[in-house]
């Protein structure tokens, strides 16, 4: 029984294996290592504050001497901020080197976290930071993610004035509307009053007119239409 069953299933198993191998190799080339700077890869910070530049990595085939570095894009040239090597999965990074002042490594290998902190940011710190990773298990393939930092003097000053403008605008519009309604009602009232007066005038004068007219028609004799 058992032998028969396994024999009949053999070709199917082979094809499943082939599909799995193809899928695995596609996955392996595409998704072996991934650097990730988070869902929102940009930040606005006030000068003088401390900023965390987040970066994590995911690897489905495991880590073997993962080389990672942070780089700063200084007007086109990439300047190293820090670099290090993670020997194996969940091991602490070794040979940590920091090339920029006020920078500190804040990562944690247990959570595949290679974030850095910039203390007391200045306006010169603004720009693009690249989190770069290379896992020799993948034959030297490069992976990176970019985080953009902007440094401002104050947060959301423009937005505040904008809301103030909008609020005062709406207030002004409502005030204008109220004044308009009042004026409209007043005008309508005055017009109604005037009309009333006019009606009175019309009624009184109308009677006079009809009387006059009637008497007029009566009084004027019709011209004789027939004239030879
Ligand atoms: C931020 O920059 C402004 C303008 O250069 C300066 O007046 C202010 O003191 C700075 N703030 C901090 C916290 O360094
Ligand atoms: C950036 O580079 C361009 C040309 O490569 C140069 O004109 C510009 O002045 C540079 N800006 C800074 C801030 O160094
Ligand atoms: C990475 O580490 C930093 C500092 O400990 C922490 O603030 C951040 O939330 C961590 N990021 C992730 C995705 O765990
Ligand atoms: C931050 O920078 C300002 C000016 O650059 C300096 O006066 C201050 O002492 C610095 N603070 C820290 C905590 O480094
Ligand atoms: C990978 O990165 C290294 C170091 O930055 C660089 O020398 C190399 O040319 C890159 N390789 C590829 C294929 O981009």
From TrEMBL:
InterPro entries: Ig-like_dom, Ig-like_dom_sf, Ig-like_fold, Ig_sub, Ig_V-set, Myelin_P0-rel. It comes from the Eukaryota. One of its GO terms (biological process) is regulation of ventricular cardiac muscle cell membrane repolarization. Residues 48-148 form the Ig-like domain. Keywords: Disulfide bond, Glycoprotein, Immunoglobulin domain, Membrane, Signal, Transmembrane, Transmembrane helix. GO terms for cellular component: voltage-gated sodium channel complex. It is a single-pass type I membrane protein. GO terms for molecular function: sodium channel regulator activity; transmembrane transporter binding. This is Ig-like domain-containing protein. PANTHER family: MYELIN P0 RELATED, SODIUM CHANNEL SUBUNIT BETA-4. Residues 1-32 form the signal peptide. It comes from Silurus meridionalis (Southern catfish). It is found in: Membrane. The chain crosses the membrane at residues 165-183. Its main location: membrane.
């Amino acid at each position: 029984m058992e032998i028969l069953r396994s024999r009949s299933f053999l070709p199917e198993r082979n094809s499943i294996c082939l599909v799995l191998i193809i899928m695995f190799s596609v996955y392996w080339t595409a998704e072996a290592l991934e650097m990730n700077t988070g869902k929102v890869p940009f930040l606005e910070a006030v000068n003088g504050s401390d900023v965390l530049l987040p970066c994590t990595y995911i690897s489905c085939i495991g880590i073997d001497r993962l080389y990672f570095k942070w780089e700063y894009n200084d007007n086109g040239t990439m300047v190293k901020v820090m670099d290090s090597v993670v020997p194996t999965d969940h091991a602490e990074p070794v040979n940590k080197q920091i090339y920029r002042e006020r920078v500190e490594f804040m990562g944690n290998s247990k959570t595949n976290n290679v974030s850095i902190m910039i203390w007391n940011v200045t306006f010169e710190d603004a720009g693009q930071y690249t989190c770069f990773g290379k896992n020799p298990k993948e034959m030297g393939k490069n992976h990176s993610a970019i985080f953009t930092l902007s440094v401002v003097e104050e947060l959301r000053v423009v937005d505040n004035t904008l809301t103030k403008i909008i609020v005062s605008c709406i207030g002004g519009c409502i005030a204008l509307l109220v004044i308009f309604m009042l004026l409209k009602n007043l005008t309508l009232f005055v017009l109604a009053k005037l009309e009333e007066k006019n009606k009175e005038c019309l009624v009184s004068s109308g009677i006079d007119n009809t009387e006059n007219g009637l008497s007029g028609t009566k009084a004027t004799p019709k011209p004789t239409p027939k004239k030879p």
